[in-house]
Write a structure and sequence with these properties.
With 450 residues, this protein is of the alpha/beta class. The protein folds into 2 domains: 215 residues, Serine Threonine Protein Phosphatase 5, Tetratricopeptide repeat; 203 residues, Rossmann fold (3-Layer(aba) Sandwich). 55% of the residues lie in helices and 7% in strands. A 6-stranded parallel sheet has the order 4-3-2-1-5-6, with helices on both faces. The longest helix has 20 residues. It is elongated.
Length: 450
Amino acid sequence: MTPGEACESIRTHLARGAPWDACDAFREAIANHPGDAELLYWGALAHARAGAGSRAHALLDEAQESPQSSTRLADILSLRGRLWKDAFARAPEHPAATATAQRARDEYLAAYALARDQYPGVNAATLSMLLGDCDAARALASEVAGLLAAQAAAATCWDHATAGEAALLLGALDRARESYAAARALAAQDAGTIATMRRQVNLLSRVIPRACKLLEVLPAADVLAFAGHMIDAPDRSPPRFPAALAPAVAAAIRERLARMHLPVVYTSAACGADLIFVEAALEIGAEVNVVLPFDRGDFMRTSVAPGGDGWVARFDHALSRVARVIMATEERYLDDDVLFEHAAMLLEGLCVLRAAQLETSPLLLCVVDAAAPGRVGGTRASYERWARTVGTPEVIDLQRIRSQFESDPRATGSVATPAPPPRSMEALPSTPSAEPGPLSVPRPQRTLKT
C-alpha cells in the first residue's frame, strides 16, 4: 500500500467515526513508510480523535521535523490547536483551563496567519469566544465568512460547517442552521464528520446556549449493543426461544432498527436472536461489528451448530458481510464460561466508546425471557450490568411473544407492535441466578451463549 492509499484508508475510518481502526491502519502503514510527513499527519489526527493526545503530539513532532513538512505546516499547527482545544474541553474547570484555551487559540492563529485558511480561522474565533474575547471572536468570524463568500469553488461539507460556526459566533442562528443543514446533507453517511460538527457546537453552547438548538439538524448516529437468547435445542424443556418464534422476533428487531439513524451495532453471532439481529441490521445497511468470545471453530460448534445446519450457513454468510469480526481472544473454549462474560463486557465497552466518539448515548437492546434462569456471560447478565452502569436497556420480551404464539400460532409471523419491557424487568433479580439451565447432549457443558 502506498502512503497515499494508506492516508485514504485512515480518512475513510475517521469519516465513519472509527479512530481506533484508523490508528491500526496508520501503525501498519508507517512501518513500511517511516518518516512520511503526510502519513504522520493523518496518524496524528487518528490518535487525536481516539483521545491519545500525547501520542498525537509526538507524531506531529515527527511530521514537523520531516523535510516534507512545509506543505503541511498550517495543518500541523491547526492539529496542535485541536489537541489543546480537546484538553480544554475535557477539563474546562481546571485551574490551567484558560492557559490551555489560550495555547489552542495561539496555534490556530499561527496556522491562519500562514495560509488564511477558514478552518483554523473559525477555530481561533471560537476559542476567542470561549475565552470571553467577544470582539476578537466576531471580527475573526466575520473575516472567515467573507473568505467563504469570495471563494469560487463549490462549497464542501466543511465549508458549510465553517460558515455555520461563523454565523453562530455572529449571532445569526437561522443562517447557522441553514449552513449546518447543508453540511449534513453533504456529509451523507459520514457519522464521524457529523460527530465533529456536533462536538464543536456543544463546545460553543457553553457560552452561546442557543447553539444547542442546532444539534437538531446534526443528528448523531445510533450506537447499539445487542444481547439475546439462543434458539432452543429440540429437547429443551420448558421452552424459552423455540424456532417457531423466530419470525416474530425478527419482526420485532426490524421494527426497533427501523427507528434508528445510521445505526452502528455491536453483537455476538450465536444461533437465534444474535444472528437474526445481524441479518436485520445488514438488511438496512447498518455497520455491524461482531464480537466472538474465542476460537471461531469452537464458537460455531458450541453456539451456532446446536441450532441446526441452517444456522451454520447463516453464520458463515452473515460474517462474510459484516464490517468487522473482533476476537475477544483467539484461544479455545475449554468449557470456560468466563470467556463469554469477557466477550460481552468487551462488546458493551466498544459500544460505549464508539457512542462517545460519535457524540451520542449508547443503547442496549435485549431479546430476553425475564422468567428464564440466567447464566454467566448470558443475556440476563448483560441486561443487569448495563442497567447498573449505563442506563435502562430496551427489551423485546420473549416471554410475551411466546405467550402470544401459544394463544394464536398464526400471529407469530407478524408482530405489528413489539412487546414492551416486562414491568421494566422487575422480574429479574439483582444478580443472575446460580441455578443451572437445561443442557443439551452431546454438547459441551452448557449451551454457551445464552
